[in-house]
Design brief:
Radius of gyration: 24 Å
Helix content: under 10%
Bound molecules: MU-OXO-diiron, calcium ion
Structural class: mainly beta
Number of helices: 9
Length: 651
């Protein structure tokens, strides 16, 4: 069925046919840029006739067909949903649990004590709630030895200062400083030196000088244009440049000069007050600080987490932290030039002239997508030149527009500069430091497009096309073309192409790669809740979050959504990882995680033959004993994925 009828914004004086032609011309005009002819009309988008997974192309529409379908990148058999307390992976692959929460990282340390370990022990063990991750080969191209660097986003709480599993029992309300400090030490980042042993199995090198724990108490510097600003000064740090710790590091990034980017997300939830009365500023409210007690309870033991005692401490979080994983003594740096938001991840692209561009999403319903464009140029191999490239540049925020045609799930867009001195709407900010510290307010001022919770961004390794997961937004009432559903429960992936394929461009074209949906629940495929044509009863999922490309350009999609397998989510099972072919748009389910987890974090060895992913918060509601089974404490863990024939993952 032609679904143009149901689209809302068709100009009334344009027949479907004329509209259709305009869309086709637009799609065709993009082909020079896209090479593979990815531009799609609304009808094609919903009916799916370009998709390689639909072989019957006998619809008698007038849409120009793709001249030649390339062979699918997906070489594995899709798997069904799963609702049990284990993992499932495509046939011919092996998933091995690796480096679970509590694993000792230093030689001579005692074994994990089933969660009864104290704060000092936790500071030397792998942290909790594994999230973003990157494998740095120890030497260039090395697929047998490297540094696995990962975020430990948070620890699971179940009420005021009550933690789920962190102390070895399902619910523990903390009453001591050591308990608060254990939670602090379970946050942050692990740097883990790993290598294949003689049998080909990945192992931790326990005695390595590279192994490191960075926690929510590790000293680090604020650098870049906002460093030292009055808004970053506290009683413990009148310089506004020295911070203790990083936390709620969600997604990640990395740079071609060998550093790791830990991205601070929901920092607001760590700041509360024990003092009566609200007392939050407008900016603190915009960033989501709540009055009263926090679920973590750190403010009970450390004054800096009480926003009434230290009103600026929360301004020192919400940044991207650059870490040199090859120097365990190095001081992590919070790069203020990239702006302060609830950072999900950071994905770079290098322009032809060496300019470094970093794409970033702000994970909140109705928040924005940003990009940083460096002043300096990247020079391969010149560490001194590259060391501080992220300290100086311009910050932009995205506006997504409908483009020439409405209702076709594509359009164009604009990057709006957030510069106090060049952008008239920002004249009310005191200085550029305030623009960066209150980047969300700057985005508000210029009218950036309110997105359906931007999560991970990923850059295609060849085309430079940029993909972003918009996880869901059940509160949306006003739609636009990139965020086309009210009460969006399922999420979508949007992609854009910079004008002239130049990452520094200030304009772009975009389209929706997949509108996630549930065709099991919504069998009428004209209902947008059933998803776009590349969503089927066999691959249905909700809430795309983690996202990344492998070296061959396969797009890996991880979910952090509703795992009830009921109602709106019937037939979707536990959280999962799928793989998509960016050209055909086909999506297949590759992996399913255990109960009550999310699947997140992804990285590959350079040869693409080992993939690392993370299982976060299994049993967050109390109903999992993964991975150890029985009545054990559930633990977040990495999964090492290998192909049984030694081949490339996904091939
Ligand atoms: Fe920590 Fe946006 O997920
Ligand atoms: Ca459009
Ligand atoms: Ca996430």
């Amino acid at each position: 069925m032609n679904k143009l009828e149901m689209l809302e914004d068709l100009p009334s004086n344009t027949s479907d046919n004329e509209h259709f032609q305009a869309v086709v011309e637009r799609a065709v005009s993009r082909r020079g840029f896209l090479k593979s002819g990815l531009g799609l009309s609304a009808a094609v988008f919903l009916a799916g006739s370009l998709s390689a997974c639909n072989s019957d192309d006998d619809d008698d529409d007038d849409v120009a067909e793709t001249p030649q379908e390339p062979a699918s990148l997906l070489g594995f058999q899709a798997i069904p949903i799963f609702t049990g307390d284990d993992v499932r992976i495509a046939a011919g692959y092996t998933a091995t649990v690796f480096a679970p929460w509590g694993t000792p990282l230093f030689a001579g340390d005692p074994a994990w004590q089933n969660g009864r370990d104290d704060a000092a022990a936790q500071a030397r063990q792998v942290g909790d709630n594994h999230d973003g991750m990157h494998f740095f080969p120890l030497t260039e191209g090395n697929s047998d030895e490297g540094l696995l660097v990962m975020n430990h986003e948070y620890v699971t709480t179940s009420g005021a200062a009550t933690y789920t599993w962190l102390f070895g029992t399902q619910d523990t309300t903390i009453t001591t400083l050591d308990q608060a400090d254990k939670a602090i030490n379970a946050h942050g980042v692990s740097v883990i030196h790993i290598a294949r042993n003689a049998a080909g199995k990945w192992e931790i090198k326990l005695g390595s000088r590279y192994n490191r724990r960075i926690t929510a108490a590790t000293p680090m510097r604020l650098t870049g244009p906002a460093a030292g600003d009055a808004l970053l000064q506290t009683s413990a740090d009148p310089t506004g440049t020295l911070v203790l710790g990083t936390f709620n590091n969600c997604g990640n990034g990395w740079t071609p000069w060998g550093t790791y980017l830990a991205c601070e997300e929901n920092f607001n939830t760590y700041f509360g007050t024990t003092i009566a009365g609200d007392g939050r500023s407008a900016a603190q409210k915009r960033y989501g600080l709540s009055s009263g007690a926090t679920a973590y309870g750190w403010e009970l033991f450390h004054d800096r987490f009480d926003y009434k005692k230290e009103p600026n401490e929360s301004n020192r979080f919400g940044w991207i932290v650059e870490i040199d994983p090859f120097d365990a003594e190095s001081t992590p740096k919070k790069r203020t030039a990239l702006g302060r938001i609830k950072h999900e991840n950071a994905a770079y692209r290098i322009a032809a002239d060496g300019t470094v561009v970093v794409y970033m999403g702000d994970d909140q319903a109705d928040d924005y997508i940003y990009k940083f464009v460096s002043d300096g140029k990247y020079v391969a191999g010149d560490q001194r030149n590259n060391a501080n490239l992220l300290d100086s540049g311009e910050l932009y925020v995205a506006k997504f527009k409908s483009g020439a045609a409405s209702g076709d799930f594509m359009g164009d867009g604009e990057w709006v500069l957030l510069d106090r001195n060049a952008t008239p709407e920002l004249a009310g900010f005191a200085n550029q430091a305030e623009v960066l510290i209150h980047a969300r307010l700057a985005g508000d001022a210029v009218g950036a497009t309110k997105m359906d919770r931007p999560e991970w961004v990923a850059v295609h390794p060849d085309s430079g096309e940029v993909y972003v997961t918009l996880t869901n937004n059940s509160g949306r009432s006003v739609t636009d073309e990139a965020n086309p559903r009210a009460q969006n429960r399922y999420g979508q992936i949007v992609r854009w192409r910079e004008t002239g394929n130049d990452p520094k461009a200030t304009t772009f074209e975009w389209d929706i790669f997949v509108l996630a949906g549930n065709p099991v629940k919504y069998t009428d495929r004209s209902d947008l809740k059933s998803g776009s044509a590349n969503v089927t009863a066999d691959n249905t999922f909700n809430s795309p979050d983690g996202l990344g490309f492998d070296p061959d350009g396969r797009l890996w999609i991880q979910t952090d959504g509703n795992y009830s397998n009921a109602g709106e989510y019937e037939g979707q099972g536990n959280n999962q990882m799928l793989c998509a072919d960016p050209v055909s748009k086909e999506i297949r389910r590759f992996f399913v995680g255990p109960k009550e987890c999310e699947v997140t974090g992804l990285s590959f060895t350079p040869d693409g033959r080992t993939m690392f992913i993370n299982i976060q918060h299994p049993g967050e509601d109390g109903d999992s004993h993964w991975p150890d089974g029985g009545t054990s404490v559930p633990r977040s863990a990495t999964i090492v994925i290998t192909k049984d024939d030694g081949g490339v993952i996904g091939s």
